């Protein structure tokens, strides 16, 4: 059987944490920097938005977490940060650094505009990394390591694991490397490296869940990783699969018209975490993740979640988990 819920974040564990540590029973820690995202199609700028996994994750958690749950965000930006206030502010204040805000350019071809776009991603600026001492010095029910530009250092992830009862990690925080020679235009092309050869690999056995896209999956070594933690592989319009030591499960997708794939995996992971916080099993929580991933790709930039959308999510999830075998 897959993991039933987030390890250590059931009702008894929450009560124990509140009694012993005096903090919120379901307080989370989100670690990853905000970014400036620039979308280009056919060489023209078609969108400039708030980006970074922390932006997508915090938006989903704000919308979908149970009553009484809270979370802190540790994110770094530079003095040029464009989204500190309205009309589209970062929801949780970041730490200010002298270095410029991390910036990405996502280039799409015109031919891919009405299909699943071929995205060429380059990092134009990189803010300071997030160091262990940047994290709050208190315990948390759960943590999400969601770096996008190498900002979550191995030692920072190690400290997260020590502070949090359960940690969920996005593989892009571990396997992304940046090649300035291949980027062009002053940016560094984003590519992947094998997880097993990184300093993050020894930490995997202390992680609860590792999420990867189907493109990232070959780099994390699913067969090896599943013996250390539960591995989630998102497959776009095909939904997702969960792998654990001794089994696997496929979870059906939600349909969506894709406009911008940026943030789909981040929104998925946050939706999945929210499902666990509500007490769902990992496979049922994955359905919540699929909903928020689909909602993210249907909008440009950080998505807006209306109450009606959340009602649809609750309705569809109820019938999927109660009437159908996934």
TrEMBL record:
> Which reaction does this chain catalyze?
myo-inositol + ATP = 1D-myo-inositol 3-phosphate + ADP + H(+)
Show the GO MF annotations.
ATP binding; inositol 3-kinase activity
Q: What biological process terms from GO does the record include? A: myo-inositol hexakisphosphate biosynthetic process
Tell me the ranges covered by the Carbohydrate kinase PfkB domain, including all copies: 231-303
Keyword Transferase tagged: yes
Broad class of enzyme this protein falls into = transferase
Where does the secretion signal sit in this chain?
Answer: none
Reading the lineage from the top rank, the first entry is Eukaryota
- Region: Disordered; residue ranges are 1-25
The entry's keywords: ATP-binding, Kinase, Nucleotide-binding, Transferase
Which Pfam family, any one of them, does this sequence belong to? PfkB
Query: Any idea of its EC number?
Result: 2.7.1.64
Family under the similarity heading: Belongs to the carbohydrate kinase PfkB family.
Annotated protein name in UniProt: Inositol 3-kinase
Q: Which organism is it from?
A: Lolium multiflorum (Italian ryegrass)
């Amino acid at each position: 059987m897959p993991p039933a819920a987030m390890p250590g974040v059931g009702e008894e564990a929450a009560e124990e944490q509140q009694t012993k540590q005096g903090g919120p029973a379901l307080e989370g820690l989100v670690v990853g920097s905000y970014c400036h995202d620039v979308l280009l199609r056919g060489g023209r700028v078609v969108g400039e938005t708030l980006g970074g996994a922390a932006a997508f994750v915090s938006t989903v958690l704000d919308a979908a977490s149970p009553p009484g749950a809270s979370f802190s965000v540790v994110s770094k930006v530079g003095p040029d940060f464009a989204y500190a206030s309205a009309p589209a502010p970062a929801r949780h204040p970041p730490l200010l650094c002298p270095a410029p805000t991390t910036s990405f350019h996502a280039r799409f071809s015109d031919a891919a505009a009405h299909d699943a776009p071929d995205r060429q991603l380059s990092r134009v600026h990189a803010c300071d990394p997030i160091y262990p001492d940047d994290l709050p010095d208190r315990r948390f029910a759960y943590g999400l390591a969601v770096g996008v530009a190498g900002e979550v250092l191995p030692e920072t992830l190690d400290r997260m694991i020590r502070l949090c009862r359960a940690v969920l990690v996005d593989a892009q925080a571990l396997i992304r490397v940046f090649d300035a020679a291949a980027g062009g235009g002053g940016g560094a092309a984003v590519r992947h490296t094998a997880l097993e050869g990184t300093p993050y690999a020894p930490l995997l056995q202390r992680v609860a869940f590792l999420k990867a896209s189907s493109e990232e999956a070959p780099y994390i070594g699913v067969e090896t990783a599943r013996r250390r933690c539960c591995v989630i592989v998102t497959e776009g319009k095909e939904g997702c699969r969960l792998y654990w030591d001794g089994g696997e499960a496929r979870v059906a997708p939600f349909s969506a018209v894709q406009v911008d794939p940026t943030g789909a995996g981040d929104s998925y992971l946050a939706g999945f975490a929210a499902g666990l916080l509500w007490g769902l099993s990992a496979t049922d929580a994955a359905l919540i993740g699929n909903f928020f991933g689909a909602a993210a790709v249907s909008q440009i930039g950080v998505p807006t979640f209306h109450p009606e959308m959340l009602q649809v999510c609750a309705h569809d999830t109820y019938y999927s988990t109660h009437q159908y075998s996934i």
